UniProtKB/TrEMBL annotation:
Oligomer status and interactors: Heteromultimer composed of HisG and HisZ subunits.
Gene source species: Undibacterium arcticum
Record-given protein name: ATP phosphoribosyltransferase
UniProt keyword annotation of ATP-binding present: yes
Record Gene3D superfamilies: Periplasmic binding protein-like II
Residues annotated as domain ATP phosphoribosyltransferase catalytic: 59-215
Length: 226
């Protein structure tokens, strides 16, 4: 934990896009309004209406790292990102049930995945999610060669780089547009609140009401009350 912040200052790590947009109502429920829009501002540290709370904008996969090292006190990250990170140094008190999607295996339409698996074929699988893919195929006893990609996984089967991909699916539109089909559901994904373990002790008084507001607001959303 870096010793650069006073105990009354809180830093929240968020990524742009769905997580930022869907965290805003939870912050509002805690009385916190972010006063600049990350889509139009170039600032990486955004002020809020509370001089003691600031939001940093980082890549989704970097959120756990900022929180782990205490550069942010808390953050919001997808289950996919947390599984890949490993969760070391992080307390994960609340599933916020936001930015929901699923992690799936997908192949080109016409590729008989079930039969390839039955025959014990060695499959080439392209993914950004190495840990999740490795565990999934190991548990099924499927032999795979994993190919690490950083984006546009959907392209890999179309140009012969891989037989299958492991990727996030939300509406399924991206798969359909690229003639791919989902052939295995690996896990449901949603975003969770993560808190630095030292901050949880040292800043409990400041953090606790915010965590409670987040929890109540996310329950309200789930029940369709928000
Ligand atoms: P869709 O076309 O709605 O199924 O969305 C699929 C594309 O959006 C894929 O490229 C995914 O990697 C990405 N995606 C979907 N849901 C999420 C999410 N919750 N977080 C990050 N990326 C996502």
């Amino acid at each position: 934990m870096m010793d650069t912040q006073s105990n009354s200052q809180l830093i929240l790590a968020l990524s742009k896009g769905r997580i930022f947009d869907e965290t805003l109502p939870l912050l509002e429920a805690a009385g916190i309004t972010v006063t600049e829009n990350p889509e139009t501002s170039r600032k990486l540290i955004l002020p809020t209406n509370d001089p003691n709370v600031r939001v940093i904008i980082v890549r989704a996969s970097d959120v756990p790292t900022y929180v782990q090292y205490g550069a942010a006190d808390f953050g919001v990250a997808g289950k996919d990102v947390l599984q890949e990170h490993g969760g070391e140094g992080l307390y994960q008190p609340i599933d916020l049930e936001i930015a929901k999607c699923r992690m799936s295996v997908a192949v080109q339409a016409g590729f008989d995945y079930a039969s390839a698996v039955r025959q014990g074929a060695r499959l080439r699988v392209a993914t950004k999610y190495f840990q999740i893919a490795r565990e999934h195929f190991a548990a099924k006893g499927v032999h795979v060669d994993l190919i690490k990609l950083y984006g546009s996984m959907e392209l890999a089967p179309l140009v012969g780089l891989a037989d299958a991909i492991v990727d996030l699916v939300s509406t399924g539109n991206t798969l359909r547009a690229n003639n791919l089909v989902e052939c295995e559901h690996i896990m449901d994904i949603s975003s969770r609140l993560v808190v630095n373990q030292a901050a949880l002790k040292l800043k409990r008084e400041r953090l606790q009401p915010i965590l409670e507001a987040f929890e109540n607001a996310s329950k309200g959303t789930q029940a369709g009350l928000a």
